[in-house]
Amino acid sequence: MLLFGLLAVGSAYAAFAPDNATADTSAQSQQIEEGKKLFAVGCASCHGLNAEGGGNGEGKMAGPSLIGVGAAAVDFQVGTGRMPAMQPGAQIPRKTPSYTQAEIEAMAAYVASLAPGPAVPAEEAYDVSKATDEQVTRGGELFRTNCTACHNFAGKGGALPNGRYAPSLMGVSEKHIYEAMLTGPQQMPVFSDQVLQPEDKRDIIAYVKALETQKDPGGFGLGRLGPVSEGLWGWLVGIGLLVGVAVWIGAKGVKAKGAKAE
């Protein structure tokens, strides 16, 4: 009876599943092959023909190995325009992407096929369109604990040693913020699901998006750069006015003494 049951299940699966499975496998293989071709043209000169890293020995930039970085790292780096990089430097800035979304997905599929790594998150993982005030508040607490040391209390970014900097988070898409936490690009640490749970990442994203629409109730925001801009404003305007008033009082006193002497 057991053997008969196994044969029946196997026969039913063979009759109904293979066509769809073959179609899915074929589509995935085609996407990986397309990604491999794009990678060979746009990425191999720095990262190696097989993504092993190290450049090609002809004076090109030596990029790190991409084996095991996962599709999420490719989607972030290429989707934000950081890759392909135009020239080496301490920090690769964000710019307009050089590839379409379909091409980015193909390259991500190719790199993901080389070794296991973080996958591109599903939309529900970073969708904050229905975030509650409680989630935003919780995200703010997590952001101030884990992110403000580099990205500033308002997500405007900040300077780091050796010519590096933490970029501004304003205008960055929800997906790319999630992928950055998941993969740790450049000098950013990796906030894996063991460090920050998926719901923690989503709450942080909700807080960052709330910052984009937050107004400055005190008046001028001064770039929200903290004590640097505030201190500069205080010295130039505050101390400047005091010095001006002191000079005016002094000049007025001299004139008064001159008038009495006459």
Automatic annotation (TrEMBL):
Its main location: membrane. It is a multi-pass membrane protein. Pfam families: Cytochrom_C, Cytochrome_CBB3. The chain crosses the membrane at residues 232-251. Residues 30-115, 134-212 form the Cytochrome c domain. InterPro entries: bc1_cytC-su (IPR009152), Cyt_c-like_dom (IPR009056), Cyt_c-like_dom_sf (IPR036909), Cytochrome_c_Oxidase_Subunit (IPR050597). This is Cytochrome bc1 complex cytochrome c subunit. The lineage of its organism: Bacteria, Bacillati, Actinomycetota, Actinomycetes, Propionibacteriales.
